[in-house]
Input
Amino acid sequence: MIPNLLAWLLRAIQFGTIIMFGSMGEILTEKSGNLNLGVPGIMYLGSFAGFASAYLYENHAENPVPFLCVVIALLCGFLASALGGLIYSFLTITLRANQNVTGLALTTFGMGVANFFGGYLLKGEVYTAAPVSNAAFSAKIPFLSDHLGLFGDAVFSYGFLAYTAILLAILLHVFLNKTRTGLNLRAVGENPATADAAGINVTKYKYLATVIGAGISGIGGLYYVLDYNNGIWATTGQVEALGWLAVALVIFTTWYPLNAIWGAYLFGMLYWLYNFLPKLIGITNIDRTSSLWQMIPYIVTILVLVGVSLRRKRESQPPASLGLAYFREER
Amino acid sequence: MEDAIRLVGITKTFGEIRANRDISLTIRRGEILSLLGENGSGKTTLMNILSGIYFPDAGQVFVGGREVTIASPKDAFDLGIGMIHQHFKLVDVFTAAENIILGLPGERRGRLDMKAVEEKVRRICDRYGFDIEPDQKVYEMTVSQKQTLEIVKVLYRGADILILDEPTAVLTPQETEKLFAVMREMKKDGRAVVIITHKLHEVLSVSDRVSILRKGEYIGTVDTKDATELSLTEMMVGKKVTLDIERPEPENRVKRIEVKNLNVMGPEGVPVLKDISFEAYGGEILGIAGISGCGQKELLEAVAGLTIPMAGSSVEYFPPDADKPEQLVGRSPREIKDMGVHLSFVPEDRLGMGLVASMGMADNMMLKSYEKGSSFFIEKKAPRELAEAVKDELAVVTPSVGYPVRRLSGGNVQKVLVGREIAAAPSVLMTAYAVRGLDIGTSYQIYHLLNEQKKKGVAVIYVGEDLDVLIDLCDRILVLCAGQVTGIVDGREATKEGIGLLMTKIARTDDGHRHLGHADTTETTEGGAAHE
Ligand SMILES: Nc1ncnc2c1ncn2[C@@H]1O[C@H](COP(=O)(O)OP(=O)(O)O)[C@@H](O)[C@H]1O
Ligand SMILES: [Mg+2]
Output
């Protein structure tokens, strides 16, 4: 019973970390009024660039240094996903293309790029691995993780990115709510004409939020391969589903980064429900219904949406100009 | 007096529309300048050029004698120019203080020091007697509070050239007076103030000079002391005009609407309408006067079936083609409309209600009448003709009836809104704030149209803000105060003072025999039921 629960929790927190990065990036993006539906594609770019750079470094260096693995992977993963955000920004902000269409195209593009170039790494195999980087990314916190019993197992046995995610959520919260720049950013997403008239450089804010947001989302994809998936790059399309979950999580949090922390873990629990709950309550043979179980996070998101709309609390609504292009002389 | 701003040869075009043509104009310190012109004459465009929203195609701007380039709103602040826009520029989910400091660099880098901000806001409020709670959310504010917030916002930025674009369009007379007092204070402080308003009596009472635009061109500037309503109107429209509202004698007066003991509960559980009783007749215009928010909107909505009155309320409609009345309470808005009872409400935010901003006039006409079409495919011809008719009749300034409504100037948007309802040929026509924000010429066209409806035997109910107009236009005037009828007076005998008193309940102490909430529907005060 207890070991099973613990295993479930561990899995849920790791899983939650992936989509927490994804949705924090998207929260930042959406706060600027850009609805970037390219999150799955961006997470693909992050995971591929992170994995590929770490893999190449590992295989070409005599003695790969774990620390360098981490730095190189993070840098490449962030930059590649940020590039995805830059493409999106250029199309939607500068050229004022439709945001939904652009986002969906970016998703397809990111998947295509990752799978195409991923093929070169796979060299015909079904999967390939970067063990040194994986070890570096998933290293548990020494001492604390094995001297505190169950508590240590539950709290201190994740790779450093899991803690970074929590820290980032707090930082993002402080940034959005306690700084002038955050206030300005929220104004851009709520009402760009007002922000513009107040002297805020709307274009700059939108670009920066979207590019940095994409970079953060991409880290989620990177965490997925190099930690959660044990450093294995495979031919399956798992990242896409994670990307959509991250988008759903944004709605679930009602755009509050702090909600992303527990929300992500809750999503993780729900996502892995099919594997653990039946065992816990003694049901066997769930194979045929596992897809039904995996729907639960999405159903919860829909329920939250319904709840939020019913409550009509102004602060829980999406940024008012989400999805709309802005042009100063247009009215 | 020192020149604050000098504009030389400003030209601005939007596609094929030339909004400003070679305009030269001077704004001085320690002075209030009125900018006057019909709807669509380019006033907002010209001021937006000063505030950095639009960039001119040609022309020069001098601030304090130095030629400047204003490429963004930020440049405008840096030059001390602050503008209060026609459509508020506020973030609804932010507090007053957050809106005020938006886009400003912080005192301490980065972090928000709300305490210090609120302190400075309070100081400004004290200086001018504003009443603003720094931590109140904008979506909880009334229009007048939002307006005040906009003013505090530009003052906070240290603006010494203030531009107010139609600030009084949505204010009550009392709120307007307060605003003018503030503007006079600013003038005393040596600031330059520009105000755009269509209400000529406001122009005459508050400004020192008046500059006039017509169809994007600069016509001239006159000293206010040498101007009259008539002379200004003539400069504005470019020809001789008469400023009289006609009031044809009612013919074939027949009862159309009888409201008895109408009670409506507001969302907060307080009654917004108490024991309202009155009658409206075909062939006459019934005016409704009152301080804004006294139940005018709720009254019309209750008749139109948009709100559900409390038990015991009765709204009877006497259709022209039947001899027994129909009870409207309990019917759907759609049924009521199909019976011929129409409501046209011009909201404070003109684009917010009733029009799809990105569609043209023709398509917006269709929105209202789509259910009439019998075929599956949309019929384009009828709405198009209707749109053309409204465009010609009300002289809507638009390149074509397919041109997006959002790009029209504010007043033109409204002509579309009102014209559409009038065009539906109802037997009871209720309009609220039909001339809100319209220039004199267009307002008169609207009065004329209402009179036409009256002559056709339509029962017109007109909720208005301008008492002078109500007195000139309406046959009878019903006065509302805090959700109750405080009197129904004859328009031909009414005085502004008399109505003003009824609007503020003072009438009750003056006039012992009239009891609040029990105003007899047939009772007309001064002069009796002269037209029964
Ligand atoms: N952003 C815009 N895009 C297209 N046309 C515009 C825009 N702004 C104003 N116009 C047009 O310019 C003309 C002048 O408008 P405006 O300055 O708003 O008039 P006013 O404020 O005097 O009523 C109108 O015909 C209007 O339709
Ligand atoms: Mg205007």
